[in-house]
Known about the structure:
Order of helices and strands: HHEHHEEH
Shape: globular
CATH class: Mainly Alpha
Helix content: 40-55%
Amino acid sequence: MNDASKYEEPARLLKALAHPTRLCIVAGLLNDSCNVNKMKECLNLPQSTVSQQLAILRNQGIVDGVRHGTEVFYKVANEKVKDIVKVLLDDEEIVFK
């Protein structure tokens, strides 16, 4: 283990995903973009909680948002994360409906 620095990015991504709400958000965004209002309804959480979790995911480069008028639609921005979440959830599809 001469070069521990190569483990920093994967560890950072795993740390960001290591929260049930954040993992659920990412899983729900794997195949489609979604806004905060729809996420909060599906997750049955306050808007502030969803926004806080999205901020953590954004800061780690896991999701990004695109503004459409007054709404921001989020999507998974990191292909490695998509693969990780699919493996963790056995390719189970989760969709915000």
